[in-house]
Design goal:
By secondary structure, the chain is an alpha+beta fold. It is built from 2 helices and 4 strands; from the N terminus they run αββββα. It has a 4-stranded antiparallel sheet. The longest helix has 16 residues.
Amino acid sequence: MLETLMYYQDCQITHTFSHNQEQFVSVCYFKDMNAYQINQISDKISETLYDIDSAALVLNKHLNPVFS
């Protein structure tokens, strides 16, 4: 999924994850910054990550407690 965001960097794509019909995290890619942005929706906290491995780890951290 993160590779797809980077591959289609000329488009504005945001993946939003929800649990029990409540959105809790989103991720998008910014071409101009060459970076992923992961947003915690309820806390309004954003993290900017400049490589796919770091983005995957942070995204996994947010998804793991909800879906494990």
